[in-house]
Amino acid sequence: QDEEKWDFVLVSNIHQVGSEKENKRKKFLDELSKKGFTIKKIEDKKLFYGVRAPNQIFQKYQCLLRNPDRMLQNPTVHHDIPVTTRIRIVNFILQNTMTPDLEKLHDLMKKKVFEATFPLHEKEEVREFLKEKWARWRDVFCQQPIEKIRCYFGEKVALYFAWLGWYTYLLGIAAVVGLVVFVAGITVFNSSQVSKEICEAHNTIMCPLCDQKCPFWLLSDTCTYAKVTHMIDNEGTVLFAMFMAIWATVFLELWKRQRATVVTNWDLYGWDEEEEELAMELINNLQHEPRQYQHSYFCSTIVLLLVLVMIAVLIGIAHALVIYRVIATALFTQSNFEFLREQANTMAVMTGAVLHYITIVIMTKVNRRVALYLCDLEQPRTFSQRENNFTVKIFTFQFFTNFSSLIYIAFFLGRINGHPGNYVRIAGKWRLEECHPSGCITDLFIQMAIIMLLKQTISNVMEYLIPWIAHKLRKKQQRPKKRSVMLGEDEEVEDPCKRQWLSNYQLNEVNVFSLFDEFLEMVIQYSFTTIFVAAFPLAPLLAFCNNLFEIRLDAIKMMRLHRRMVPRKAKDIGIWLQVLEAIGILAVIGNGLVIAITSDFIPVQVYKYTYSPCMTENSTGVDCLTGYINQSLSIFRIQDFEPHTKVPEMLPDFVRDEIKECRYRDYRNTDDYSYTVQFWHIFAARLAFLILFEHVALCVKLIAAWYVPDVPQSVKNQFLERKHSNLRKELSMMEYSTEV
Predict the structure, then answer these.
(1) DSSP H stretches of helix in 119-154
(2) Transmembrane residues, as ranges (predicted)?
(3) What angle is formed at CA 537 by the lines to CA 534 and CA 540, rounded to 5 degrees?
(4) What mean pLDDT do residues 483-488 have?
(5) Which CA distances in Å does 324 have to 213, 345, 436?
(6) Which domain holds residue 111?
(7) What is the pLDDT of residue 651?
(8) The dihedral of CA 312, 314, 315, 321: what is its sign?
(9) Is 636 helix (H, G, I), strand (E, B) or coil?
(10) Residue 138 maps to a domain
(11) Which residues pair with 426 in a beta bridge?
């Protein structure tokens, strides 16, 4: 039985006898035979070669690394090496075996000499357990068997699932708080003084929203929009933004503890990735010379410049989306449909968000190509170094792809568009968008909601359906035909390996980036959940629901739809931890800016404590925000319109010459349209709040990081015990040997 266990399978097309490809294949397999590999060939529509490494390779590995997989074993006994380590070593040797033509497996795969290489999904009890108890939709709320995942897929995958499980678990708390804040917002839906004033403003005539066909309009027309805005933009949101900034820190600190607990029994603290790589190189080739560390400032400068160019391109795409929204608004307002005319702004924002999602999908593919190209320029020394470089670059690109449009809506929309009589125009023709009189935060809310929903639904459906359909199609193509009886002999008995190899070959291929993609998807989602959460308190809830399915989706893909991944060893989630910490800091800055700049929280507070009737007249019976809307709108004289603006249609109930002025959202003087004192007052308050918020939040983050130790005491004590008993054992062995 044991003889039939194969470490790896190489698949190749059946080439013509004597062809170049066949010679290359033969040379490669000969090299493996020289190293003592056992090779078994099975012929079907393709050629399958099973390879099994000789035991001395694993014995060398155990000796060189003093068997990092041991748990205080007797040093003289050779224990069975775990399957994951076995696959990892064999994969390393296969990838680094050189033919006499100086070609490695990677080059042969490019030249189509071999079509695929993969380790096998074995019929082990671990696999059956994982299939039954983990990779099923019905286990959505169950604990994950991290130990078993590690035994089958290696430490790296196990750590990914441990991290994802922990993240989802803590998202549950944030989701509940976000939901409470949102529901609280709905309850004050009708009671907000500001939206009451907007709904009752039947005589407030607003300046037209575009140059040509737009009429004057009444502020009270936008009653519903104002209510929705105040549902999102209230005091609760400020507290929730604070809460999420602290949550991000606590989550990371608790994850470090959780990781330490998970990794304790894996005996990896003494493990060194570089040492392992050197050991494997030497086992593969005794003459191997290690590659030196190198650093070129010239190369780094070139890479940095190219990264900046790429970021500029991504910001350019965000500008294109802005221009699209401006032109779309102009076109919608001139359309023949009444609904489109009235909702022109909202429709432009919604179609803009869908367009943004499409650019995200396209640019993700482009970003990957560019990041890989930049990594090749840098020529990193080891695989893990290459992975780290790649991670940082692709995360930076993805961040700008996903967020540049949101950053514009949050911080620039309606702040750089001028005022009636002096608008900022694109190409001298189209006016930039304006904010609604009740604030900009609803635009941000709509954009976030659309992108998060589309990303989570479409991406997840595609992520599951594409491999599933591909698997079904391959199975259909590969249905084995009944072999005709050969040369009059009885039908040969089918090799038991053949069915297993074929069924593994029919699964979807995995590559180095399979796990990386899952991580990237989650980290971008984490950014959405923390950075602009002040504008979208439901983000954690959406993310939580998505992740419950994501865990099982990934499990089912790995167990049932994909070939087995080559296990990788790791003691933590690597550079992703630094990326998450960076997002934590961005979250504090982002939420501080959203509250200070995007939301109306500061202008409302300034009005309440400086200009309101409560402060000026000492009247107690009135709401302190009475008159806020009137104060936040400036007056524009119609005679001052720019010459090429057609003075718009009148409202039905007003006589044409009666309207001498209209209102717009800004703090400007009536005579010369310069900023009022109140504008500078609010500007100062915004800056003061921003500085205060960020310092308080960052202090709380630092205190939380100090308060929660990275490694639990129990884990430290366990190590202490272990070291102590090891030393005691060695000492007693020494004394025993001297006595003898």
Answers:
(1) 125-133, 146-153
(2) 157-186, 237-255, 297-324, 344-363, 390-413, 523-549, 573-597
(3) 115
(4) 46
(5) 19, 12, 19
(6) 8-120
(7) 62
(8) positive
(9) strand
(10) no
(11) 430
Number of domains within the chain: 2
Quote the tokens at residue 675. 């900023």
- What is the distance between the alpha carbons of residues 366 and 363, in angstroms, rounded to a whole number? 5
Pick the closest to residue 673 from 424, 416, 421, 438 (CA basis).
421
48: enclosing H helix or E strand: strand 47-52
Q: Name the DSSP letter for residue 500.
A: H
Within 8 A by CB and 6+ apart from 204, the residues are 218, 219, 220, 629, 630, 633, 663
Position 491: which residue type?
E
Q: Where are the alpha helices (DSSP H) in 334-382?
A: 338-342, 344-378
**Quick check: is 491 in a domain?**
no
Q: How many CB atoms lie within 10 A of CB 112?
A: 11
Name the percent of the chain in helix, strand, coil, to the closest 5: 65, 5, 30
Task: For 101-135, write each residue's pLDDT tens digit.
Answer: 888 888 888 888 888 898 988 777 888 888 888 88
Q: What are the tens digits of pLDDT across the range 138-161?
A: 878 888 888 888 888 888 999 999
The secondary structure element, H or E, covering residue 504 is helix 496-505
Phi (first) and psi of residue 660, to 5 degrees: -105, -20
85 or 285: which leads in pLDDT: 85
Beta strand 661-665 pairing with 633-637: antiparallel
Residue 685 maps to a domain: no
Q: What is the pLDDT of residues 13-33, one digit of tens each?
A: 887 777 888 888 888 888 888
- Which residue, 587, 599, 624, is CA-closest to 682? 599
Q: Read off the pLDDT of residues 579-600 as tens digits, 9 standing for 90 and up.
A: 999 998 888 888 888 888 888 8
Is the pLDDT confidence value at 491 over 80?
Answer: no
pLDDT for 648 beyond 70 = no
The predicted model gives 439-450 an average pLDDT of 83
pLDDT at 437 over 80: no
Alpha-carbon gap, residue 86 to 5, rounded angstroms: 12
Which helix or strand (DSSP H or E) is residue 388 part of?
helix 383-411
Among 98, 120, 142, the domain-final residue is: 120
**DSSP structure string for 470-499:** HHHHHHHHTPPPPPPPGGGSPPPPPPHHHH
Residues contacting residue 303 through CB under 8 Å, at least 6 positions apart: 374, 377, 378
Mean pLDDT for 68-90 is 65
Q: What is the DSSP code string of 684-703? A: HHHHHHHHHHHHHHHHHHHH
Last residue of a domain, one of 120, 142, 160: 120
Q: What is the chain's length? A: 740
The CA distance from 313 to 300, in Å, is 20
pTM: predicted TM-score of the whole model, two decimal places:
0.87
